[in-house]
């Protein structure tokens, strides 16, 4: 499927409850890929937005009581309308408050995908006690750990790192696209979580949508680094390359191993 052409045709409406660090970057990245974003975190409009969106992204960075309440409301409203929900459980296990909210979401909202770094996925699997912070990492991005989380929550899991793992518990793909400069800017994972929204919104097969989204984002980062001089110019170049990305480029440069 030509995901990027389809996104640009449909312009899916992506409702994000995300953190204040990522908010502007994620909105710009979503526009660049062809989607139509809205950012809001008041519980008073979460239900309406959750029900009218084409996908909902719940990102636990800079969590507040209000954001937690809004996420539960938006997630439940989205579920009632069959709108896919993506969870980014930033720093799960790191504090009691966020871990409780994440557990509430996992218990009450049906997720289309969970996108997190390998350390956070290990915490969800019960393989690690706590993630150290927004950028927690474990040495190895183990596909078996991601598969266990996918089965546990009956969802697609996208576990990121140098090699990304995408799995629905049955099918697994490894993606080698990306660039280490993504580690030198903030909110690169948050932007990926938001970018997964339009991809899962235009396809029934959420696993294939996840694979395509991860490869697309990684390729945009690789192309951006051909022009960037450092983190500052990389941020701008990444937005440019998301804007100029095509299905042809994704098919030409993707480094996916399915197994
Ligand atoms: N060492 C690396 N080399 C290339 N790409 C990486 C590397 N580490 C992470 N990435 C990429 O950076 C993005 C954010 O992933 P990650 O850093 O794991 O998430 P988070 O920001 O949530 O901690 C992903 O697209 C991932 O593929
Ligand atoms: C720095 C920071 N603090 C709270 S959220 C956030 C952004 C983290 O973004 P990412 O995990 O994608 O780097």
Automatic annotation (TrEMBL):
<feature type="binding site">
    <location>
        <position position="39"/>
    </location>
    <ligand>
        <name>substrate</name>
    </ligand>
</feature>
<comment type="pathway">
    <text>Cofactor biosynthesis; thiamine diphosphate biosynthesis; 4-methyl-5-(2-phosphoethyl)-thiazole from 5-(2-hydroxyethyl)-4-methylthiazole: step 1/1.</text>
</comment>
<comment type="similarity">
    <text>Belongs to the Thz kinase family.</text>
</comment>
<keyword id="KW-0784">Thiamine biosynthesis</keyword>
<feature type="binding site">
    <location>
        <position position="187"/>
    </location>
    <ligand>
        <name>substrate</name>
    </ligand>
</feature>
<keyword id="KW-0808">Transferase</keyword>
<dbReference type="Pfam" id="PF02110">
    <property type="entry name" value="HK"/>
</dbReference>
<keyword id="KW-0067">ATP-binding</keyword>
<feature type="binding site">
    <location>
        <position position="115"/>
    </location>
    <ligand>
        <name>ATP</name>
    </ligand>
</feature>
<keyword id="KW-0479">Metal-binding</keyword>
<protein>
    <recommendedName>
        <fullName>Hydroxyethylthiazole kinase</fullName>
        <ecNumber>2.7.1.50</ecNumber>
    </recommendedName>
</protein>
<dbReference type="GO" id="GO:0004417">
    <property type="term" value="F:hydroxyethylthiazole kinase activity"/>
</dbReference>
<dbReference type="InterPro" id="IPR029056">
    <property type="entry name" value="Ribokinase-like"/>
</dbReference>
<keyword id="KW-0460">Magnesium</keyword>
<comment type="function">
    <text>Catalyzes the phosphorylation of the hydroxyl group of 4-methyl-5-beta-hydroxyethylthiazole (THZ).</text>
</comment>
<keyword id="KW-0547">Nucleotide-binding</keyword>
<dbReference type="InterPro" id="IPR000417">
    <property type="entry name" value="Hyethyz_kinase"/>
</dbReference>
<keyword id="KW-0418">Kinase</keyword>
<feature type="binding site">
    <location>
        <position position="160"/>
    </location>
    <ligand>
        <name>ATP</name>
    </ligand>
</feature>
């Amino acid at each position: 499927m030509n995901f990027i052409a389809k996104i640009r045709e449909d312009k899916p409406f992506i409702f994000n409850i995300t953190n204040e660090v990522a908010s502007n970057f994620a909105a710009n990245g979503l526009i660049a890929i062809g989607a139509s974003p809205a950012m809001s975190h008041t519980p008073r409009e979460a239900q309406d937005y959750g029900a009218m969106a084409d996908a909902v992204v719940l990102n636990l960075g800079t969590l507040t009581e209000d954001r937690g309440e809004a996420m539960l409301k938006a997630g439940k409203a989205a579920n009632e309308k069959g709108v896919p929900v993506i969870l980014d459980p930033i720093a799960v296990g790191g504090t009691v408050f966020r871990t409780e909210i994440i557990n509430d979401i996992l218990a009450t909202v049906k997720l289309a995908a969970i996108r997190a770094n390998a350390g956070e996925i290990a915490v969800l699997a019960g393989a690690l006690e706590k993630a150290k912070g927004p950028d927690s990492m474990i040495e190895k991005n183990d596909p078996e750990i991601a598969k266990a989380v996918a089965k546990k929550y009956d969802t697609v899991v996208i576990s990121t790192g140098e090699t990304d793992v995408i799995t629905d518990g049955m099918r697994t793909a490894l993606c080698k696209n990306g660039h280490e400069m993504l580690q030198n800017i903030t909110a690169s994972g948050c932007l990926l979580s938001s970018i997964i929204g339009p991809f899962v919104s235009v396809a029934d097969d959420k696993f294939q949508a996840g694979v395509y989204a991860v490869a697309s984002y990684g390729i945009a980062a690789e192309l951006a680094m051909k022009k960037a001089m450092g983190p500052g110019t990389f941020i701008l170049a990444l937005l440019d390359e998301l804007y100029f990305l095509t299905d042809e480029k994704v098919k030409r440069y993707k480094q996916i191993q399915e197994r």
